[in-house]
Amino acid sequence: MATVPNPLYAPWLQKDQQVLSHLLNSLSKEILAQVISKENTYDLWTAITTIFASQSQSRITNLRIAITTTKKGTMSSSAFIAKMKNLGDELAAAGRPVSDPEMVDYVLAGLDRDYDPVVAAIGAVKTTITVDELFAQISAFDQRVEMLGDGTEGAGFNSSANLAY
User: Fold this and answer.
1) What is the rounded distance in angstroms from the CA atom of residue 90 to the CA atom of residue 93?
2) Which residue from 26, 39, 138, 154 has the fewest beta carbons nearer than 10 Å?
């Protein structure tokens, strides 16, 4: 029995090479340098998928580290909240959303000692609190401290203040 070449192979190969060429021309220089040696679209697509999967995992790891270690520090509470929301949104976009209870824990852990009354009040509540409710409590606390403050810039406030939740 003689081997007969598949008559559809040559037209398929030609189209595959056209698609390969188009894909290679559409890649960034950084990605192109990593996949230029691929000889067909299947190998190219597999390589690209592998590259982005590892980058995505690295990005998720970095975002998780950032969300667990972010501290309010000298940021305003609104800037801190915005940063935490942004990190949560980026994790969700990467396919690893942060649950409300987790986010509450991350935010509370990132607050400085000036917010101990808020942290204590949240901890004393028997029901779970949503992230939006926590952000509202932090904002209300800031407004009260500002209202009761002596108006001098940079002056701290008495950490014995109490917050009713």
Assistant:
1) 5
2) 154
d(CA 124, CA 162): 13
Asked if 63 contacts 55 with a C-beta cutoff of 8 angstroms, the reply is: no
Spell out the alpha helix ranges (H) of 70-149. 77-93, 100-110, 116-124, 131-148
User: What is the pLDDT, as a whole number, of residue 157?
Assistant: 46
In this predicted model, what pLDDT tens digit does every residue of 125-147 receive, in sequence order?
878 889 999 999 999 999 998 89
Structural domain boundaries in the chain: 37-148
Q: 3-class DSSP state for residue 69?
A: helix
pTM of the model: 0.60
The SS3 assignment for 91 reads helix
Contacts of 42 (CB under 8 A, 6+ apart): none
How far is it, in rounded angstroms, from Cα 165 to Cα 163? 6
